[in-house]
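Technical annex B. To support the medicinal chemistry partners, we prepared a structural model of the target in complex with zinc ion, based solely on the information shown next.
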Amino acid sequence: MVEEIGPGVSRLKVGDRVSVPFNIGCGTCRNCIHGWTSFCLRVNPIEGMDGAAYGYANMGPYDGGQAELLRVPYADFNLLTLPAGSEHENDFTMLSDIFPTEGPAHGDRPGAGQAVQPAAA
Ligand SMILES: [Zn+2]
């Protein structure tokens, strides 16, 4: 659930239900535009390192992918919007790790449609 938004966020609003992919992309660099968001050229300040993720050594200054609250850079690009309400909460929990990585990689941009795929049983 989005609890607060910064001045650069335009697509999301407080109260939106979202999933947070663990890798971080800017959405506008050459690699992100080509769908290689795990090798984003902007989000990792370490010289020679492309790509970033929450809570991984050498993957940028982004703490805790499993924290209760998370600051999400480039939120309009990185957060996957879920349907409003509380239905399927346990199912969507599965989307908070590797599954949503597919969203940004397949051209999911601010304002674009979203698709949530069911996980295999
Ligand atoms: Zn990028």
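Notes passed to the chemistry partners:
The chain is about 15% helix and 5% strand.
The pocket of zinc ion is lined by residues 25-26, 29, 31-32, 40-42 (CB under 6 Å).
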